Model the fold of this input.
Amino acid sequence: MKYYLTLLLRGFRHPGKVARGITAFFRNRATEVFIISYPKSGRTWLRVLVNRSLQHKAKVADSRLLRTFEISRKSRCLTTQFSHDGLCNLYNYDPYNRLSYKSHLYKGRKVVFLKRDIRDVLVSHYFEETRRMKTFTGSLSDFIRHDVFGARKLVEFNNMWFRNRKIPSDFLLISYEELHHSPHQVLKQVLEFMGAPDATDTVLEEAIEYSSFENLRKRELNNEFKSSRLSPGDPGDANSFKTRKGKIGGFREAMNPEDILFIEETVRSHGDPGCDWYFHPEAS
Done:
């Protein structure tokens, strides 16, 4: 009961997020491609890259640029939604031992899975929940060890998707780090997977420039998309921005050695032996 009361309070704090989640839920049956990620893995960046690349075909205003389902439908590619794989496609506030794979939803659909070094994800997610969403009040060390937010939850999320990656009709694995180094190549790959192979190099390069960290930070500050999905918790607090740092390996600036060892031990103890999604060599 306490868990559901907590969810209800979060809903009152973020009504726009709940409304989008309900809309996404009813669109799931008409969705042909799901782009799945754990929070703070680079989803907003990828969303703007993809949607900007299709915007000229969809003929939508900049203020509607975060509406992937609408843009994918109007541009006549496969209907696509971004999801964190929880209730109504939002983040799953269940503890790690209550995660479950939704075979009924993903079987016969295409899935893009966006991964990121879990140490960077944990730091970024900590600031998201404490400074932007205001759903957690403890320290980073507490967060890393928490059953709902911590390292075990993130490891189990990756395990679940690794073990079930053959259930969708097609599965594309991409990483935040690859998107940093080869944005043109990764973006083109995702668009082709969505059934939009005809985006020109000029369109892709313009989308990459438009979606650069510096430009997205300016757009977030100016609320150009008119959406809480890209708005800071406090414009005066740099750590409350959705576009916070966008850095590979930045976890070392925030974590102490004991936290890093705890995450490594969690992977050793609970990671799937065949899965190499948890860490990225460049972040280490």
Remarks:
- The domain at 2-283 is CATH 3.40.50.300 (Rossmann fold).
- The CA atoms of residues 63 and 224 lie 6 Å apart.
